[in-house]
Design brief:
By secondary structure, the chain is mostly helical. Helices cover 44% and strands 0% of the residues. It contains three helices and no strands.
């Protein structure tokens, strides 16, 4: 799981069964041809980060 890498308690992570339902609601934009800037983060990692901040209230 992601918590092994990030060191965050796994109770803050989205279960994969729920993620499969959420991911079908997300809009997938086509990839850009130019590779400028930072690489795109995986959607599940970004959603876990958003929910972690919302749940813990950290800034």
């Amino acid at each position: 799981m992601i918590s092994e890498i990030s060191g965050i308690n796994s109770s803050y992570e989205i279960p994969y069964a729920l993620w499969n339902q959420i991911s079908s609601l997300l809009v997938h934009k086509p990839k850009r041809k130019k590779k400028t800037g930072r690489l795109r983060m995986e959607d599940i990692k970004a959603m876990n980060a958003i929910f972690y901040i919302a749940r813990t209230g950290c800034q």
